[in-house]
Amino acid sequence: MNMHNVVIGPHGATPEDVLAVARAGAVVEVGPAAVAGMAAAREVVEALAARPEPVYGVSTGFGALAVRHISPELRAQLQRSLVRSHAAGMGPRVEREVVRALMFLRLKTLASGRTGVRPVVAETMAALLNAGITPVVHEYGSLGCSGDLAPLAHCAQVLMGEGEAEGPDGEVRPAGELLAAHGIEPVELREKEGLALINGTDGMLGMLLMACADLAGLFTAADITAALSLEALLGTERVLAPELHAIRPHPGQAASAANMAKMLAGSGLTGHHQDDAPRVQDAYSIRCAPQVAGAGRDTLAHARLVAERELAAAVDNPVVLVEGPGGGRVESNGNFHGAPVGYVLDFLAIAAADLGSIAERRTDRLLDKNRSHGLPPFLADDPGVDSGLMIAQYTQAALVSEMKRLAVPASVDSIPSSAMQEDHVSMGWSAARKLRTAVDALARIIAVEMFAATRALELRAIAGGRPAPATAAVLAAVREAGVPGPGRDRFLSPDLEAAHVFVRSGALVRAAEGVTGPLA
Fold first, then answer.
1. Mean pLDDT for the stretch of residues 388-404
2. Which residues does the record list as 2,3-didehydroalanine (Ser) (modified residue) (predicted)?
3. Residue 520 lies in a domain
4. Which of 130, 377, 500, 505 could form a disulfide with 447 if both were Cys (CB 3.0 to 4.6 A apart)?
């Protein structure tokens, strides 16, 4: 476990903080400034709780039931009932890293001093994270409005010592047992605290941040495999000239073209597109690779901007404004609506699907003897006896088709809830869930292109061709990782999985950068 400390203050968190906690087990500490801010906001809540007039979230019911004023003796029960009733998720368990990101982001908002919870609530949540206790959260239950209610409620329930959680050993046990085993005292929730624990975009935001990190690596990997394919198809690198991309000044496009140019520097294979069957220009899947991947990069840049803004936000309803007149106030608002996050989650799914689609078209070109400029059919050893990579492309095509279905936006849907009080929702959680699936599919698609392109390059090298130093380094690393080269047919599934691991682990990018230096 990475013991890097993340000190959380009142002014948000960084993407690196979220990844460190979610994926690397970083230790979380609630800083003194955050404790002071929470204490000041709590004073506002307690002052309002003592007044006879109802205040939403403090002394009323919730949602469509907000019209009922709750007397002081029932308010602790109100908070418990809220959490228990909202912990209504169904379906498979959500991944551990997603739950940890969700918890940390909710803790970030608690620490902002805008929610009105006592410091002990935030400190107990930090203790859960540090103990490696991960609440059981289910796939279905969030509409992405009023926050990721059901997922967050399952986490809040564990804070109360109820429900189920996974311990650091991976075993699921009753939450009360796990808390006791780690010396953590369950929290008895008071006014507003149950609501503050469940009202945020934390699940969808956590998944967005992790997807952004993963896609950044995959966009670079896709530039590398596009370069491999261009070289294996004897294409021209002249389309990568920086002056061509400067006249259409999209930054992502220029970055992708520069990556491909670095990969192909010194190649003895590029520029021979006139030799065997004259081509005036390469096919779109080769020639337009920087334009497609670059548009995805720019979409990713926008998604990161939205994520950073959301990280700086304090998403809750109602929210405590300590600096207001008369010692502060509590105000209802709509900041919990997940539209900003939902949109970019959908945008990324679209960009990822198109990147997968163009990669598959390059793979198909490598395998088709009528378009591969001298390569054997399906890159087979003895075509007809051997099928080569024919069905690897089928698998890749199936993944592309799945990604196209996953690219259908979730955020254009809305389904009314809470007796029409919550009559427009974002579906951001659903957008995040499908994006996670799409990211994994994209890594597999890129792996199949890498598998085919490296085999094709090795066949070119056997025939006397000279790959670029960077592509030669990738080829050597792929073989060293146990991904085989040309030869008779063999059990292909394990080889494709080894290629996927090579891509997803970042080994492909590292192998290329050993020659090119840092790639964008």
1. 98
2. 146
3. no
4. 500
